[in-house]
Amino acid sequence: MLEDKLNDKISHRPDPEKLVKEGVLQNDPRTAEEKYEEAIEEEYAKREGGA
């Protein structure tokens, strides 16, 4: 249930390049996609009590 809710939000997220252009994401050596995936993994860990 929670997983479905989060996956639905992920499916509607803006394009990472658009977020970089708008200044929401900062440009660094990692791609916007890599940063996003890392943030999602951390969020899953928090919700599962792992972090």
From TrEMBL:
Superkingdom of this protein's organism: Eukaryota
Assigned keywords, A-Z: Repeat
Protein name: RPEL repeat protein
InterPro entries named among the record's database cross-references: RPEL_repeat (IPR004018)
UniProt repeat feature RPEL, residue ranges: 4-29
Chain positions covered by the region annotation Disordered: 1-51
Gene3D superfamilies: 6.10.150.10
Composition bias type Basic and acidic residues, residue spans: 1-21, 30-51
Pfam family for this entry, one: RPEL
Protein's UniProt keywords contain Repeat: yes
